[in-house]
């Protein structure tokens, strides 16, 4: 870990250790949204409820925290129907499309220059949970936090 000094070092670390297709872009480590990795952005309080629900089902999801939103990493097993996307948008949940990217931190601790940290870091050789599991939990937890 102490050898990770540059953004390129961190991108290589995420690729090697966690199988994430991280790249350097604009001086930051970015995870492109592809057919193999996606992200779900939720308001912090709702994200906490979703996290609890997923943990109660023994579903481990890598999660990033920012000031007002958390980002859950997932495997895009299928794209939600337009009606589901509309429901998610009404409760302030966003699923960026392919071609987007999410910034990853250059550190595993709480404080780093990107202003985000891992709530639950990825696991070595860990598989991302299916997007459908995260969406189902977000919809089920949706009524709990308004």
At a glance:
Helices cover 32% and strands 21% of the residues. The protein is built from 4 helices and 7 strands. The mean pLDDT is 90.
Structural commentary:
The mean pLDDT is 90. The protein is built from 4 helices and 7 strands, in the order αβββαββαββα. Helix 2 packs across helix 4. It starts with 6 loop residues before the first helix and ends with a helix. A hairpin with a 3-residue loop joins strand 4 and strand 5. It has a 4-stranded antiparallel β-sheet. It has a 3-stranded antiparallel β-sheet with strand order 1-2-6, with helices on one face. The chain is of the alpha+beta class and 146 residues long. The chain is globular, with a radius of gyration of 15 Å.
SSE arrangement:
Blueprint: H1 7-18, E1 23-25, E2 28-32, E3 38-43, H2 44-56, E4 63-65, E5 69-74, H3 82-90, E6 101-104, E7 117-120, H4 131-142
Antiparallel strand pairs: 1-2, 2-6, 3-5, 4-5, 4-7
Helix pairs in contact: 2-4
Low-confidence blocks of residues: none
Oligomer state of the chains in this structure: single chain
Number of helices: 4
Helix content class = 25-40%
Order of helices and strands: HEEEHEEHEEH
